[in-house]
Amino acid sequence: MIRVIRRAQSVSGVVQLPGDKSISHRYAMLAALADGSSEIRHFASSLDCRSTLSCLRALGVEVSESRGILTIVGRGLRGLRAPRGILHAGNSGTTMRLLSGILAGQPFETRITGDDSLRTRPMRRVIEPLRLMGATVESQDQGLPPLTIRGGDLSAIRYPLPVASAQVKSCVLLAGLYGDGPTAVAEPLPTRDHTEIALRRLGATVRQDGPWIEVDPWPDLAPSRLDVPGDISSAAFFLVAAAIVPGSQMLMPCVGLNARRRELLNYLEEAGLDVTVEGEFVVAGESRGDLRVSFGERLLTGQLPKIEGARTAALIDEIPVLSVLGSQTAGGLEVSDARELRVKETDRIAALVCNLRAMGAEVEERPDGLVLGGGARLKGADIDTRGDHRIAMAFAVAGLAAEGETRIHDAGCADVSYPGFFDTLAEVTGQPND
Ligand code: S3P
């Protein structure tokens, strides 16, 4: 499907964002391991989270949905059943990597695969710690999916993570629930901590000591009522749209503001964006509040702060749309330490460079990032999304500031994290929805 985007006069209105994808995956998996029935409100509508639910169903977990509330009947840590066929994680790295940790603790064999993109993504990063814990994990050459996992009771490990990855950290912590003692991981840089927060909320003991995060095994996970905040990574597209289209004003109610994810707001505020948080409150350890943003000339006339080191790790999902923003600010943007972007749903550095150049921006590609010359007068182009949801949405936003028509190819991939994105974009820009 091709979506056509035209230059916008303004971006205005109220956007109800889908539930946070990362939190939804974790709530579903932990609810499945709890003893009894949990209710989850505002569960993400994303295809990725649907993949997690279908894997859980295949493992014998009852999942139902009524009037927007998801009910998951947990089977306890030892209650999952051997699936009849191969589990399918679709496009979702989070499903495959987190679930691998849980599967490593099961006394049966499971095979898990994914779509063409997921089958090219590195899994050694989870295979190695799970093998150290005593699970048998087989893969295709070079650690690629499908994975075959045979597990059981595991040995506890103390594992320094070789990459800053919340997925790998979570995989090891979830396997640690099946350990013979406390399992610990050390992060080279802080990453999103939704797993730690959700584990504590459901009754597990998780300790933090400097970079080390340690979980005690065999907790009694209690069923819970949970509520997922809006996805701040989805909010990023509208924040940047408001930043580059004069006259814009938007309100996004109840957006997740976890300290490790709100770096996006800190960054945009530092860059000069007029964005405020209203009515912040915390539910189940996860903060949330309303975001109000309006266009201001100041941001576009300056230079974006460099994205590097810990900031790169914190903004990893937002770098595609921040690069679009960088092309529009007078001083441009430099992104480094972002090698991980090359192994996301697609090589996001290559996809950004090629599509930004197609739109007329000046971009230098680096092995671990990119440098954007600022102030580009973008022109509409055919955008090759490479099936990557964040590339599709980032370039839809770029199209709002471009002359002529921007054609987003395979735009349906946005459903991976944000079903309805293009409809909402059409509403807030007053453009025809084609
Ligand atoms: C995620 C972690 C990040 C992020 C992904 C979701 C998670 O991946 O890019 O979209 O939910 O844990 P990595 O852990 O590979 O950095």
Describe the overall structure.
With 434 residues, this protein is α+β, with helices and mostly antiparallel strands. The chain has two domains: 3-19 and 229-429, Alpha-beta prism (UDP-n-acetylglucosamine1-carboxyvinyl-transferase, Chain), CATH 3.65.10; 21-214, Alpha-beta prism (UDP-n-acetylglucosamine1-carboxyvinyl-transferase, Chain). It is 32% helix and 24% strand. The protein has 14 helices and 22 strands. The protein has a four-stranded mixed beta sheet. A four-stranded mixed beta sheet has the order 4-5-3-14, covered by helices on one side. Strands 6-7-9-8 form a four-stranded mixed beta sheet. The longest helix is centred in the first third of the chain and has 13 residues, at 21-33. The protein is globular. It starts with a strand and ends in a 5-residue tail after the last helix. The mean pLDDT is 97. The structure holds shikimate-3-phosphate.
What structural keywords apply?
434 residues, alpha+beta, UDP-n-acetylglucosamine1-carboxyvinyl-transferase, Chain, 2 domains, 4-stranded mixed β-sheet, 22 strands, globular, binds shikimate-3-phosphate
Name of the CATH homologous superfamily of the largest domain: Enolpyruvate transferase domain
User: What would the CATH topology of the largest domain be?
Assistant: UDP-n-acetylglucosamine1-carboxyvinyl-transferase, Chain
Please identify the structural class as seen in this structure.
alpha+beta
Largest sheet: 4 strands, mixed
The whole-angstrom Rg is 21 Å
> What would the principal axes of the Cα set say about the shape?
globular
Count of the separate structural domains: 2
CATH class of the largest domain: Alpha Beta
Number of helices: 14
Question: Reading side by side through the largest sheet, how are the strands ordered?
Answer: 2-15-17-16
**What fraction strand?**
15-25%
Number of strands: 22
Which architecture of the largest domain per CATH?
Answer: Alpha-beta prism
Q: What would the average pLDDT be, to the nearest integer? A: 97
Runs with pLDDT <50, length 5+?
none
Ends apart, CA distance between termini: 10 Å
Associated small molecules: shikimate-3-phosphate
Helix content: 25-40%
